[in-house]
Amino acid sequence: MNRPQQQGVVLLEALLGIFIFSIGILALIGMQAVAVKNTIEAQYRTEAGFLANEVIGQIWVSNASPAAFNTATACTAAPCTTWVTKVQAMMPGSTGALAPSIVVVGSQVTVTVSWQKAGETSSHNHQVVAQIVGASG
Question: Which residues are registered as beta bridge partners of 101?
């Protein structure tokens, strides 16, 4: 006679099991989303570092004065304008206030690559400072 009182217990246990399994799957999906976001951020940081080091290398081998790469004044060297265009093509939102910059003070060169993904409220920066000793100029 205990049988009628226990009807539906298996169904309840099955629903509880499905609920716990669903929470686990949702946690995995959330972790995957965070992993993808972090991978994309790492990609942008890597590209920014590559781009900054690329222009520093160009300054080293250029016959032009390092001051010709100064984006605040002229950016008259052909590799400089090509580099700025490349950065703006590769890094999201790197125009206007976030435009890439090269500041030359004496033999010190400071390269800043900034980016901001769509939908983000804050920008990201990668800055490299190098001493260009023995270069032309």
Answer: 112
| Residue 94 near residue 100, CB atoms below 8 Å | yes
Distances (CA, A) of 107 to 70, 71, 102, 118, 130: 12, 15, 12, 36, 8
* The pTM of the whole model exceeds 0.90: no
- Up-side HSE of residue 109: CA atoms within 13 Å toward CB? 24
* 90-to-35, 86, 93, 115 alpha-carbon distances in Å: 22, 6, 9, 9
Cβ of 101: how many Cβ atoms within 10 Å? 17
Which residues, in sequence order, are CB contacts of 98 under 8 Å at separation 6+? Answer: 114, 115, 116, 123
**Model confidence pLDDT, tens digit, residues 58-88:** 988 888 888 888 888 778 778 888 898 899 9
- 8-63, pLDDT tens digit by residue? 788 999 999 999 999 999 999 999 999 999 999 999 999 999 999 999 999 888 88
User: Phi and psi for 113 in degrees, rounded to 5?
Assistant: -115, 125
Q: What are 23's two structure tokens? A: 């929470």
